[in-house]
Amino acid sequence: MRPTPTPEAAARPDHDALLLGSGSPLEAATLGALDHLQQVLTLQPAGTDRFRADSEPGRFGRIFGGQLVAQALTAAAATVAELAPHSIHAMFLRPGDSAAPLDIAVDRTRDGRTMSARQVVIRQAGRVLVTAMVSFDTNPECSEAVTVEGSVTAPEALPLLQHWAQQAPRELAGSASTWVDTPPPLEMRIADAPIFLGGTQAGGARSLWMRLPRPIDGGPGAHAAMLAYASDYLLVDTAFRAHPEPVGYRTHRGLTLDHTIWLHRPVRFDQWHRYTQQIVAAAGHRAVVNGTIIDAAGRHVASTAQEVLVRPIAELPEQGDTA
């Protein structure tokens, strides 16, 4: 196995390491992935409050849960005028095939003077993959608490996720190369290697920085959907990293059972956001991971919670969505 570099050494430019402005194949692939995600989030009308959509290229052997969360949010928002989304609660019931189309149905559960609620069901070939509740509010202007942080490493000083993929142990090289060859539509920077790329278990919270690799059009709703998409990354890995028992991707599988995101204020997701994740409970085969998303100005823009199934591969059920 190649030696693991320090964050400072890993962040130095080498071949395709730099992303933005490098003109590298990695940059081109990441920008292409964002183009594709925008297409996937452009839902096609298929009747009253009904939509059809495609998926990103397969990266996990099934549809990424964050994509389904973002599509549910987008579909619900298409049936609500003027109000802004403030929460989405999604339950994953079955894995999906990224090569097959999705059918999305929205039920107008409630419309009030200042709040609305929508139930969304995403099906594939008649089978329910996800059910979600999405809530909307007028989101009035108010004073905002600013999170005061101590010394925080600037995102550009940290390695890209793809650095750790390039440094992954030989036995993980096949799956690790996917993060370089078919990268997510995000720039993600993190100080140490995730467990799925050869990192080691450790307690406590872990932070990563993330942003879109270029500005996007579409207003606050588009940025909220992109943040919802990105909010699903590395939560399962955090459950592995801080699990009280020895677990790893060679012996265990992580499945997302449900995912919640609360949006506290409008987001500009083409700017840096720090995502701090920590495991808050582990019992039996289940763990709960919480996340806090802070923008570059120190404002708390979103919170997340996810229940994860961490189970030996031999005991794996059919339910859930890997992430």
Automatic annotation (TrEMBL):
GO BP, sorted A to Z: acyl-CoA metabolic process; fatty acid catabolic process
Origin superkingdom: Bacteria
Domain Acyl-CoA thioesterase-like C-terminal: 178-310
Domain annotation Acyl-CoA thioesterase-like N-terminal HotDog: ranges: 60-136
One Pfam family it belongs to: 4HBT_3C
Keyword field: Hydrolase
Any one GO molecular function term: fatty acyl-CoA hydrolase activity
PANTHER family cross-referenced by the UniProt entry: ACYL-COA THIOESTERASE, ACYL-COENZYME A THIOESTERASE 8
Similarity remark: Belongs to the C/M/P thioester hydrolase family.
Protein name: Acyl-CoA thioesterase II
Gene source species: Mycobacterium novum
Gene: tesB_1
